[in-house]
């Protein structure tokens, strides 16, 4: 086992967690609400600004506890920002609000709106 905390802290300033849970259930899940397309939109937005993986990482996760048939759940850490019902159309505004138009604002939390 190798502890790599310091290396990751130096490399990554923020992490976008996108729920991609897929379950066979009567309850909504992010996979059925377009999670794969939302992940692709997040990655594309960050790549277009040269901010994918360093300094901003994108991670697909299991359930974040914000299930909805209306969109995907996203958490941004270490900012402790949580979003539900995120669609592909929401991604540019959400990420610009969090990171600025050029993805350069990784050291501050989003302004309350």
Automatic annotation (TrEMBL):
Superkingdom: Archaea
Protein name per Swiss-Prot or TrEMBL: (2Fe-2S) ferredoxin domain-containing protein
Organism in which the protein naturally occurs: Halosolutus amylolyticus
Lineage: Archaea, Methanobacteriati, Methanobacteriota, Stenosarchaea group, Halobacteria
């Amino acid at each position: 086992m190798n502890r790599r905390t310091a290396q990751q802290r130096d490399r990554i300033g923020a992490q976008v967690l996108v729920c991609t849970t897929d379950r066979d259930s009567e309850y909504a899940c992010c996979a059925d609400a377009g999670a794969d397309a939302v992940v692709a939109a997040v990655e594309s937005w960050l790549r277009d600004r040269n901010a994918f993986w360093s300094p901003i990482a994108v991670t697909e996760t299991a359930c974040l506890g914000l299930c909805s048939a209306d969109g995907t759940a996203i958490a941004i850490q270490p900012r402790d920002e949580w979003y539900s019902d995120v669609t592909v159309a929401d991604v540019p505004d959400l990420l610009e609000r969090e990171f600025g138009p050029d993805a350069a604002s990784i050291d501050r939390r989003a302004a309350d709106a």
